[in-house]
Amino acid sequence: NSFCTLLAMQLDNSDGDDLLLGDGSEQRVPRDLVEPAAVYRLAFHPNAPILCTGLMNGCVNVHEWRRNETRAIASLPTHRGAVCSMEFTRSGSHLATVSSDRHIKVLDCASQAHVIDIRRKNSPHKFPLSILSVCTSTELAVGDDDGMVSFWDMRMQKPVTTFLEHADQVTGMIYFEGNHQLVTSSTDTTVGCFDMRMRKVAGFSEKRKDELNCITFLPATNSVIAGTDAGMLPIWKYGAWKRPYDVHSKHPRECEALLTYNDNMFFSGAYDGTVRLIQHHPVRRVLTNFGSSRRNFNTVSGISVSHDRTLLAAATTGSTVFFYDIEFLGDESELDKLRDRAERKHMETIRKASAEDRVPDSDSD
């Protein structure tokens, strides 16, 4: 089938003229993609020009994107409830999904067959599933609307451990494979850190005033950042979970989507339909906006970046997916144009220090 064929393609064997951005005389990104139902989640394939959308009607739609267009590949009835979260495995061979119907499913991308379907009767979760994280090739973390967090061995298709620390919907998950820890956010206003190897709570934050809708991680400063309805983005230092050490202020309200771009910048979505690229260090501020001219006033509910880091897709609380050209973000000289003189000088110093750190010591006799 066509989905299987696309996944088997070797991108480096494509025609040299087959460029996403063309010669500049055409539209640089695909046109808006209108789905038959509200789009709950987005996921770009990690190795191929494929975008999957998880819909309110339980379907996963598969699209190929090329140059300035998208092409529908498949519409896969997956769940009886809304597709609340989905994520590709690192290799891209499988797509895991969870739903309000409480099923956990794993799709084989080549055959389009569901190779795993964990039914709700075989799950400890008694409430709709809200979030998942593909931790390793054989392990999966799942959260639900009542705050339960479970960690699954997908070889046995059984939960290894469960946690009941959160008192409301689990909204975000980040797995740190190096120390086997899972960091979560919840609408109960807390952040949790769970040690999956030791099967214990490694840390938990104090309650706050604002519900936490999502989280992301910036490696440069070991910062975990959360999105809130009020717009303020609290920042925790990894390992110091009691309370945030700072906050990104002046962010628009209803931040329901965050996505790390690199170790110092992240994307955020808000109620106004705009995706913002935010710099964390040395000066915390918005570098640029995507979508502010689209007159789209639906809240951004999902953000994903393509495998080649040239295309940004944003889903809103409606049924439309918007695309934005982000190829220029890979060019530091282009980013410097968005910074003031002091910031540019600071970033030049950081880049110089990083380059020196990467130079191996010379051998001496």
From TrEMBL:
SMART domains, alphabetized: WD40
**What ranges cover the WD repeats?**
76-108
Out of the domains of life, which is the source?
Answer: Eukaryota
Q: Which PROSITE patterns match?
A: WD_REPEATS_2
UniProt keywords (A-Z) are: Repeat, WD repeat
Q: Which SUPFAM superfamilies match?
A: WD40 repeat-like
Q: Which InterPro entries match?
A: WD40/YVTN_repeat-like_dom_sf, WD40_repeat_dom_sf, WD40_rpt, WDR55/POC1
Q: Which family does it belong to?
A: Belongs to the WD repeat WDR55 family.
PANTHER family given for it? Answer: WD REPEAT-CONTAINING PROTEIN 55
Question: Under what name is this protein listed?
Answer: Guanine nucleotide-binding protein subunit beta-like protein
